[in-house]
Design goal:
- The structure holds 2 protein chains of 2 kinds.
- Chain A is mainly α.
- Chain A has 16 helices and 4 strands.
- Chain A has a two-stranded antiparallel ribbon. A two-stranded antiparallel sheet of chain A has the order 2-3.
- In chain A, a hairpin with a 2-residue loop joins β2 and β3.
- Chain A is globular, with a radius of gyration of 22 Å.
- The N and C termini of chain A lie far apart (48 Å).
- In chain A, 47% of the residues are buried.
- Helix content of chain B is 33%, strand content 25%.
- Chain B folds into 2 domains: 234 residues, Rossmann fold (3-Layer(aba) Sandwich), CATH 3.40.50; 237 residues, Rossmann fold (3-Layer(aba) Sandwich), CATH 3.40.50.300.
- Classes of the chains: A mainly alpha, B alpha/beta.
- At the A-B interface, α1, α11 and α12 of A face α10, α11, β18, α13 and α15 of B.
């Protein structure tokens, strides 16, 4: 075959231009939903646009968002981690225990993060080392980690954290911009870069689409999965530092149900629950949407259970609508 | 019996079929030939109700019919045995055969007794030595095919479509399949037989229809045509030499394997692969060839034996280590182990060489696309864009993506496991030409193949394996198909 023949057929880089891809993306849809919810909030409550109110609203998603970013990578790789909230609880409990023995703020932060890492390592070892299914492993460690927290604390609570420790959850970097919000944005950027711009991120997608072919392509599948569980543990530990600092106390029931909220955030953000696709930008938007809904309802004194009903419906709706639209189009084309 | 008239089907941006005319007759085998992407699979999907034609109609016994769903087609007696028939690993043979139409008792429960008895009768009818209660997961590819065929027969099919039924079968199994086709023919079934192998087409088919680029370009009786005429119709040009092996300078040993053993799959394998050499591995399905290759690639662990690369002892425990040592493997099971369906072509190609297109772990998009473009162009890949899902490509083009992926890593040894299985003549020729070119550039190639013409045409030397052991190593000169078949089957000279 001559070189002229080989050059004969030119394959272009991309099917669609950048603009078209953006317009057709899941993120565009989420952005529209976010704008609508923002508008409804503005219209229904005169207090919503107040800068300090908006700033308060961010706390509804910043800590959960930290977990959701790491969880997004785990889910893209085709696994899941349901123990995130339990890791948070255990991290917070061990921080409280250390505090009661006189640990200062740097030690507390270190203990929070290291506990998260250790829990992540346990999950990672069970999933990638022993090859157990992650849904079973993390349901197990979910009970295990929180159970340890209950044994340590009983029905008591740790309070009286050092005053400078409060800065992580209550401090402001500039005007109404809280430390947590800055941390949320920085983490989003770090995870977006990690997932979308590095070779590590690429292998995460490859594993999620076809773990066997990824292995056959020389990807160290087990190592990547272990790192992802470590990361999720670490981010849960970080969320524990923020939440404990913000609340100023630790109870063993801290962050109950957050694992499902984090999963909801990830799935609403357009990450395929079966793995293989999705982007961090979508998770950021999903976090904003969930935070705004929760806060808007709070301003209107809507009870918490109604909020969870709404978030559940939103999740189903946002996932069902694109499917329905394509189906209606198909029917029309046939008819 | 069944007639397609003026069938056309368009997908976004592609006209898959246009003005197709096809008639099938009872008790007659019609061969459907064409390159991959010529529209054969689309036609099968229209016949089985998976796709709806945009134009034209289907007639059954002279009456127009519409197959809105796969069930409609099945009820009308049209059934297909696909390239990758969907079967269920965890179910028994009988359950797989009768899934969706199990015999029921009066109370609506599955009538297991009757189901197993009917399954046994069906299996006997096609000469399959299988028990109805065997788990499907314990069966090999050939037996799975038989289950699929039994399933097709269980719905009392009148039209049987066989889409490359022999692609994964060994010699003996192919013989048995031919007998089965004869039996179906005698029962008055109309059979559509899709195949890339001309010898088998001429052996079992009565009529032919040739597709090219979604159009029917010829049809008639096989008795009135020749192989070269069919090839000319298919490709629309003369292909000339199908196996363009150019002699290459063979250098020093690159890969040396000695006393290589696996607890269950193979024993005492030893060979030497030299620079610029194409070493063929021939044998029957299940002879252990793929298993040796997967052990060399680090997928499975050998129990004993030494591997040397460039004279240095190499211990390879994972595919990642194999790639780092310059050994790459193009697997037989393209869909599961080769291409990563759901990811773009570009990501598939660059996955193992991302370190080359990135700095400190950050991917450089422009370099990545350039690398993918470079290697896919060398293999003459046919695609619309590099960010297209690799799953939208035809089998032949997927294979080119997998090969491009490995070449981009600049390997020393490339192992190709059934590299042209189920791909069209055009892609086949491209793969062969490229293999030959690579050997010429000093790459060492191991080619596992069950196709004798391919082995004879491409390999410098041939290792024949039988039941997990070496049955012989043969030089190219003086090699005949008979020698290979005898070695593979274990037939002595006197037989």
């Amino acid at each position: 075959m001559s070189s002229q023949e080989m050059q004969a057929r030119f394959i272009k880089d991309r099917l669609q231009g950048r603009g078209e891809r953006l317009l057709r993306s899941w993120e565009a849809l989420l952005l529209a939903v976010a704008v609508i919810i923002f508008a409804i909030n503005v219209w229904s409550s005169p207090y919503f646009l107040d800068p300090w109110n908006l700033s308060d609203a961010t706390f509804n998603f910043t800590e959960k968002g930290l977990i959701a970013f790491a969880l997004a990578l785990v889910i893209i790789s085709g696994e899941i981690d349901l123990s995130v909230a339990a890791i948070l609880a255990l991290s917070s409990t061990l921080m409280g225990l250390a505090m009661s023995h006189g640990a200062g703020t740097p030690e507390l932060v270190a203990i929070g993060l290291l506990t998260g890492l250790a829990c992540g390592a346990v999950n990672g070892f069970l999933v990638s080392g022993l090859g157990l299914p992650s849904i079973v492993v993390t349901i197990g460690t979910m009970s295990l980690f929180r159970g340890i927290a209950f044994i340590i604390l009983g029905d008591k609570a740790f309070t009286g954290y050092p005053s400078d420790f409060a800065w992580f959850g209550q401090g402001y970097v500039f005007w109404v911009i809280s430390f947590e919000l800055v941390l949320f944005v920085l983490t989003a950027v770090v995870f977006a870069v990690l997932l979308h711009a590095t070779s590590f991120g690429r292998t995460v997608y490859a594993i999620g689409n076809n773990p066997m072919a990824a292995r056959f392509s020389g990807v160290r599948v087990e190592r990547v999965k272990f790192i992802l569980f470590l990361l999720t543990g670490l981010m849960s530990g970080l969320a524990a530092v923020c939440l404990t600092s913000r609340l100023g106390s630790t109870r063993p029931s801290i962050a109950t149900g957050w694992e499902l909220e984090a999963v909801t955030m990830v799935v609403l953000g357009g990450i395929n629950i079966l793995g293989g696709s999705g982007r961090i930008g979508g998770v950021v938007l999903a976090a904003l949407i969930m935070g705004m809904v929760t806060f808007g309802f709070g301003l209107l004194n809507v009870p918490g259970i109604v909020m969870s009903i709404f978030v559940g419906l939103l999740l189903i709706l946002v996932i069902a609508v694109p499917k329905l639209v394509t189906r209606i189009r198909q029917v029309r084309r046939k008819g | 019996m069944i007639r397609l008239a003026g069938i056309a089907k368009t997908f976004p941006g592609v006209r898959a079929l246009g003005g197709v005319e096809l008639s099938l007759f009872p008790g007659s085998v019609t061969a459907l030939v064409g390159e991959n992407g010529a529209g054969k699979s689309t036609l099968v999907k229209i016949l089985t109700g998976i796709y709806q034609p945009d134009e034209g109609h289907i007639e059954l016994d002279g009456r127009p019919v519409r197959f809105a769903t796969t069930m409609d087609a099945a009820r009308a007696g049209v059934t297909a045995i696909h390239q990758e028939t969907v079967l269920f690993d965890e179910l028994s043979v009988a359950e797989n055969i009768f899934l969706g139409h199990q015999p029921r008792t009066r109370f609506g429960f599955i009538d297991w007794k009757r189901m197993n008895a009917e399954a046994r009768a069906l299996l006997e009818r096609i000469g399959a030595r299988l028990e109805p209660d065997m788990r499907l997961r314990d069966l090999g590819i050939a037996n799975r095919h038989l289950v699929a065929i039994a399933r097709a027969l269980s719905i009392d099919a009148r039209v049987v479509i066989m889409d490359e039924p022999t692609a994964a079968l060994s010699h003996k199994e192919i013989g048995e399949l031919y007998e089965l086709v004869e039996r179906l023919k005698a029962e008055g079934k109309a059979i559509l037989f899709i195949s890339h192998k001309f010898d088998e087409i001429f052996r079992i088919a009565d009529r032919y229809t040739v597709f090219r680029d979604g159009e029917m370009v010829g049809a008639g009786l096989l008795a009135e045509t020749t192989q070269s005429e069919l090839v000319r119709l298919m490709v629309g040009r003369d292909v000339g030499q199908v196996f363009p092996k150019v002699p290459a300078a063979i250098g020093e040993p690159v890969l040396t394997v000695a006393g290589y053993c696996h607890p269950t799959e193979f024993e005492d394998i030893g060979f030497e692969l030299r620079r610029g050499e194409i070493l063929g591995f021939y044998g029957l399905i299940g002879a252990g060839r793929s298993e040796v290759m997967q052990a060399l690639f680090g997928v499975t662990r050998p129990s004993r034996g030494a591997v040397r690369i460039d004279g240095q002892v190499a211990v390879i425990r994972t595919p990642a280590e194999a790639v780092a040592r310059g050994i790459v493997y193009v697997p037989e099971d393209r869909g599961r182990q080769g291409a990563i369906i759901g990811m773009p072509i570009v990501s598939n190609v660059t996955l193992p060489s991302l370190y080359r297109t990135s700095r400190h772990g950050f991917i450089r998009m422009a370099e990545e696309f350039a690398l993918a473009r470079d290697y896919t162009a060398r293999l003459d890949l046919r695609a619309a864009a590099l960010d297209q899902d690799v799953g939208t490509l035809s089998g032949g083009n997927q294979q080119k993506v997998v090969i491009a992926k490995w070449l981009a890593t600049r390997p020393k040894v490339i192992i190709l496991d059934e590299p042209t299985k189920g791909i069209d003549i055009g892609s086949k020729a491209a793969v062969h030409a490229f293999m030959s070119e690579l050997a010429g550039q000093g790459l060492s190639v191991i080619m596992v193949s069950s196709e004798i013409p391919e082995i004879m045409g491409m390999a410098d030397r041939v290792v024949v394996m039988r039941e997990g052991r070496m049955a012989g190593t043969f030089a190219r000169d003086g090699l005949t198909p008979e020698i290979l078949v005898r070695a593979a089957a274990g037939i002595g000279e006197e037989a």
